[in-house]
Design brief:
The protein is 75% helix and 1% strand. With 499 residues, it is mostly helical.
Length: 499
């Protein structure tokens, strides 16, 4: 078997071919980018099923692929309890938030905040998104380095730079159209790669599935639900119980899919409200199947390592990619590793595009003479969006290098996303469910929500699955209370004009 410093010629060829082809495919959409609307929303021409798969691709990411098997390897199927909350959240978003997004044409989620509360709240929520998304994507960038370093034997810096540069090329060129359609290709690839790896790992276990079922069952690996009530703080310190999963998964998804530009941008790219709803709801079924598949892969690896007596990697997040590269046949290993890189590139491209869109539309506030965001004639807005894409890729590189000390990549990413997401969700709900609170109350609510969740994060043992629920509740309630002290809008205007 031909090898170069441990790398199979065929596997390396497959991976390099994939990287080159997907970069070319994404950059191919450059000719469809005529203005900022095309770059940010893909011209709103994508069908619902493509947006559905793009949502799944963004929601999955490398964190899922390398982190989820590690959860079931060391635990059980309890993480799926969080996924059930994802479905409830999608239903709420479809009814409560989506109709507001399709009243007029919006480019970002935070334009809704400008319409409801004013420019300061829009900039505040957009800034929170930029910081949160950059930190969360930095963790994902580090997750990529785990995979690339295993394949190429490079250190983290060069591993990250390679994928970032290739992803930047087609995101810079093709905008949201490239993001959606490369997501479709990449999602199909990594699902196929996971399915192949499942059966390959199973073939390495004598006795097949019946032995896995018996061994894993005896070890409690198939336990899914935990309905136990615990006393006081113990109840909130366990991340994977039914109650924490349902509430945490619901509120986390309401925040990520209802207020995070990374997901909302996909929903806004749909042709109309009905297709947007269909894409969002259909994505849950695919997500459930994917998480189940990766958790089962972790259980297979648990049985394999236990039966063979091998020592597992010191970093549990490396267990799945290391097995693939070390044990799969030439060619197959290359395909499955390319599948993991596909998920990484899909998520990175979406993040870069959403960060650029929010920077240009919400912070720079580009408008045409009629006041429509982002439709300014000429190449200026489109060029600024591309420059912002390059700038954010450099930021993600820097954060990715810092993320090496943050523990489990999956839980680190979810924790980072959960801290400010509650405040975002709370102020969005305050905007769409109430009429009295105005700009000052909204800002006070966000400040209270962020302060509360930072206290919970650093001063209590409460699990991250509760962060969004706590942050959203405090933000919403604090905003309502603050609104009681706001002057009546008409009275204030009359006073300011001398009436």
């Amino acid at each position: 078997m031909l090898e170069i410093t441990g790398m199979h010629f065929l596997d390396l060829g497959v991976i390099l071919a994939y990287l080159g082809l997907i970069t070319w495919f994404g950059a191919h959409f450059r000719r469809q980018q005529n203005n900022l609307r095309d770059y940010v929303l893909g011209g709103r021409t994508a069908p619902w099923w493509a947006i559905c798969l793009s949502i799944v691709s963004a929601e999955t990411s490398t964190l899922t692929i390398v982190g989820t098997p590690a959860l079931s390897f060391t635990g059980n199927l309890g993480f799926l309890q969080v996924v059930f909350g994802y479905l409830l959240a999608r239903m709420v978003i479809s009814v409560v938030l989506l109709p507001h997004y399709f009243r007029g044409e919006m480019f970002t989620a935070y334009e809704l905040m400008r319409r409801r509360f004013g420019e300061r709240v829009r900039r505040l929520t957009a800034s929170i998104f930029l910081v949160t998304r950059a930190l969360a994507e930095g963790v994902r960038v580090f997750a990529i380095s785990l995979v690339v370093s295993i394949v190429l034997g490079t250190d983290e810096i060069w591993s990250i730079v390679l994928i970032l540069l290739l992803t930047l090329v087609y995101t810079f060129e093709g905008g949201m159209t490239a993001v959606i359609w490369t997501d479709v290709v990449q999602m199909c690839l990594y699902v196929a790669g996971a399915a192949v790896s499942f059966f390959v790992i199973l073939s390495h276990i004598p006795g097949g599935w019946s032995h896995v079922a018996a061994a894993a069952g005896a070890a409690g690996k198939f336990q899914l639900f935990d309905f136990h009530f615990r006393l006081a703080m113990q109840f909130f310190s366990q991340p994977y119980t039914f109650w924490a999963g349902l509430a945490g998964g619901c509120f986390l998804t309401m925040a990520s899919h209802g207020t995070d530009q990374l997901m909302v941008q996909r929903l806004l790219s749909a042709r109309d409200l009905r297709q947007s709803r269909t894409a969002l709801l259909a994505s849950w079924a695919v997500i459930f199947i994917q998480f189940s598949l990766f958790l089962l892969i972790g259980i297979l690896l648990f049985v394999y390592y236990r039966d063979t007596g091998q020592a597992s990697p010191r970093e549990m997040d490396r267990i799945y990619p290391e097995f693939l590269w070390s044990h799969l046949a030439p060619g197959v290993a290359g395909i499955t590793i390319a599948a993991i890189l596909a998920a990484a590139m899909a998520n990175l491209s979406a993040a870069l595009n959403s960060l650029a869109a929010t920077t240009v539309v919400d912070l720079q506030g580009l408008r045409d003479p009629t006041g429509t965001p982002g439709n300014k004639a000429g190449p200026g807005p489109l060029w600024r969006a591309r420059v912002a894409t390059v700038a954010w890729s450099a930021v993600l590189l820097a954060i990715g290098l810092l993320a090496r000390r943050w523990g489990s990549v999956l839980e680190a990413g979810l924790t980072i996303a959960s801290i400010p997401s509650g405040a975002l969700l709370g102020v969005f709900l305050l905007g769409v469910l109430t009429q009295k609170p105005r700009e000052g109350a909204a800002i006070a609510g966000v400040a209270a929500g962020l302060a509360a969740i930072l206290y919970v994060r650093f001063r209590t043992p409460v699990a991250f699955t509760w962060y969004v629920l706590i942050g959203a509740s405090v933000t919403f309630c604090a905003g309502l209370v603050a609104s009681l002290f706001e002057r009546d809008r008409k009275h204030g205007l009359a006073k300011n004009t001398g009436g």
